[in-house]
Design brief:
- It is a single chain.
- Helix 1 packs across helix 5, helix 1 packs across helix 11 and helix 5 crosses helix 6 (163-172).
- Helix content is 37%, strand content 15%.
- The two termini are 26 Å apart.
- The protein has 307 residues and is of the alpha/beta class.
- The model has no long low-confidence stretch (mean pLDDT 90).
- The chain has a 5-stranded parallel sheet, covered by helices on one side. It has a 4-stranded parallel sheet with strand order 2-1-3-4, sandwiched between helices.
- It is built from 11 helices and 9 strands.
- The longest helix is centred in the last third of the chain and has 20 residues, at 283-302.
Length: 307
């Protein structure tokens, strides 16, 4: 059976640390890896829109000397004719060595993995998981802070539907001495199952609040998220909540000088463009890191070691 990445907990802490080590080596020595996946093909099956994730996967495989095929929307695949996900995966397994898949339905990559003959990477499934964004986040934190422990992190915005938040909390809960501050409107609080599985089961303390400004002085990392229009059942609720938090230079005056600001992107209004000039804004560096960690992951799942 091929090795898949469907949930961030599919990887041990040792494997997470090794992926980060390889990604940092790729950053330092790109020429060493430029032909590592020669004659290998990655299929990007995106049943839901994406910019960063899809293009970073494609850039990653091209950077390893491989090639890419796939589609960027369900309407451009045979799904539009009624083909099942299982049949699509069976077909693409005949053409590609590894598949990165995004789907609006929770659990779709898990179903795909049951029939795939090549490794499946979950590139986001509904409001559930986004493990490769979490790998990107971990690499960014490690490069910015030099560690994956001993800090206070605030998650702000849509914590209910934010699959990036769910995955990152699950990953960080396995590292030591991290304080969690959960900042959201009451209607968009972190789901109980995430708190139970990742935090309460491990007796990890956390704070919940609706007020960003009151906690920002305590944070070492601020992870902003957008309120996701596509996850709401009615427009009225979205419009009421969409601008709950807007990070501005004025609000950052109370923050630590070595705070780092992360965002999985895309952003809407939740971070003012004026913040982009602040050296604490790490989200564009985060985007760049996404390519390198996905290169490391592709190598791992294909069983390729570069000496």
């Amino acid at each position: 059976m091929p090795r898949n990445l469907l949930d961030i907990t599919d990887l041990t802490v040792e494997e997470l640390d090794e992926l980060i080590r390889v990604a940092e080596d790729i950053i330092d020595n790109p020429e060493k890896y430029q032909d590592a996946c020669a004659h290998k093909q990655l299929a990007t099956l995106f049943f839901e829109p994406s910019t960063r994730t899809r293009l970073s996967f494609e850039s990653a495989m091209l950077g390893l000397g491989g090639s890419v095929l796939g589609f960027s929307s369900a309407s451009s695949s045979s799904t539009a004719k009624g083909e099942t996900v299982g049949d699509t995966i069976h077909t693409v397994s005949c053409y590609a060595d590894i598949i990165a898949m995004r789907h609006p339905k929770e659990g779709a990559p898990f179903a795909a993995a049951q029939v795939a003959e090549v490794p499946i990477i979950n590139a986001g499934d509904g409001g559930h998981n986004h493990p490769t964004q979490t790998l990107t986040d971990l690499l960014t934190i490690h490069r910015e802070k030099g560690r994956l422990n001993n800090f206070t992190i605030g998650f702000c915005g849509d914590l209910k539907f934010g699959r990036t938040v769910h995955s990152l909390i699950n990953a960080l809960s396995r590292y030591e001495n991290i304080n969690y501050v959960l900042i959201s409107p009451t209607e968009l609080k972190l789901p109980r199952y995430v708190k139970e599985e990742a935090l309460k089961k491990r007796n990890i303390p956390y704070t919940q609040t609706t007020d960003l400004e009151s906690v920002i002085p305590d944070l070492d990392i601020l992870y902003m998220t957008r309120v996701q229009r596509e996850r709401f059942f009615n427009e009225e609720d979205y419009l009421r909540l969409k601008d709950s938090y807007i990070l501005t230079p004025e609000k950052l005056e109370k923050a630590k000088e070595d705070l780092i600001i992360l965002h999985p992107l895309p952003r809407v209004n939740e971070i003012s463009v004026a913040v982009d000039k602040d050296p604490r804004a790490a989200y564009w560096r985060q985007v760049k890191n996404g390519k390198f960690i996905r290169m490391a992951l592709i190598l791992k799942l294909l069983g390729i070691e570069v000496k």
